[in-house]
Amino acid sequence: MTAALTVQSVSKQYGAVAAVDAVSLTIEAGRVTCLLGPSGCGKSTLLRLIAGLEPVDAGAIVSGGRTLSATGATVAPEARRVGLVFQDYALFPHLDVAANIGFGLADLPAAARRDRVAALLDHLQIAHRATAYPHTLSGGEQQRVAIARALAREPAVLLMDEPFSGLDAHLRGALRDSVFDMLRASGTAVLCVTHDADDAMRMADQLVLMAGGRVLQQGTPEHCYREPASVAAARLLGEANVIAGVAKDGVLSTPIGSFPSPAGATAVIVRPQHLRVGAGKANATILSSRFVGATFAVELDAAGQRLMMWTGQPRGAAGDAIAVEAPADMVRLLPA
Ligand SMILES: Nc1ncnc2c1ncn2[C@@H]1O[C@H](COP(=O)(O)OP(=O)(O)OP(=O)(O)O)[C@@H](O)[C@H]1O
């Protein structure tokens, strides 16, 4: 994999707030990296630092052997080969689609500029809207124009801030997939910010989980989902039970079973869909059971610990005793 850009231990402080705190990550060509975290965790600040809209306090941002940001030195945004797609797309209302896309190409001869714009219109499947004005475009079309405009200057890295937040749910899924397939095929390195775990898992080749200005975990969506580094990382990607137990002689005993634990873990993380009804003795009581569409959400009490189980079928009513277990390969030991 080719690193298109690396962020090296970058920090940014606003007054007492460490908005970005010693963050390191690598963005690779032809891959989509998603930055996922709760509101206020520093995602947008990190994008602004990479775009060069603000200086870093510490650390460095490097691309193509060039230092773009370091303490006291910031290459201007337009000299970075970094494209930015804002949350609201920020199209120029008085320019038509083709002129929006060609806006940053004033330095090209007219014919080359026309060719580049035509290629992008084609590539993003908006050629039929070339002479339309932004206010007449659908949300999905506006998004494509914004991406085309950002790609016009052939950036090494494309930064996207919540690019799907303005689109309705059913449009979102289809667009998300086609836009990112196209970007991957173009070899652009994409860094996309979102607070939506489903979006992030669907579109990312690489996930970066953030909280409180720091990186909690990085890896493929599957790795981060199956092997969360912490409870906070697990919960960013979906509901997770944290079940405490007692560690003795390399075995962790919990209300839902015993698991080998050579490093002396004192708790496990289990996703609600990985809890299942076992054949053994009852070890929990049903507190409630709700039909929530694809599953039943069953709230349990297991030796005083509250757990959530998702199952395909009803498993009883409040007050019923039940045997609950989890397959060992779906249980993640929490570091002691
Ligand atoms: N210009 C600024 N001046 C002062 N504080 C700021 C500034 N920009 C961001 N912050 C603070 O830095 C922290 C990180 O903000 P940031 O906007 O990067 O978070 P975010 O993860 O993008 O949030 P959201 O998902 O809500 O956009 C927050 O505590 C925010 O209040």
UniProtKB/TrEMBL annotation:
This is ABC transporter ATP-binding protein. Keywords: ATP-binding, Cell membrane, Ion transport, Iron, Iron transport, Membrane, Nucleotide-binding, Transport. GO terms for molecular function: ATP binding. CDD domains: ABC_Carb_Solutes_like. It comes from the Bacteria. Residues 5-237 form the ABC transporter domain. Gene3D superfamilies: P-loop containing nucleotide triphosphate hydrolases. InterPro entries: AAA+_ATPase (IPR003593), ABC_SmlMolc_Importer (IPR050093), ABC_transporter-like_ATP-bd (IPR003439), ABC_transporter-like_CS (IPR017871), ABC_transpr_FbpC (IPR015853), P-loop_NTPase (IPR027417), Transp-assoc_OB_typ2 (IPR013611). SMART domains: AAA. The lineage of its organism: Bacteria, Pseudomonadati, Pseudomonadota, Alphaproteobacteria, Sphingomonadales. It holds the Pfam family TOBE_2. It comes from Sphingoaurantiacus capsulatus.
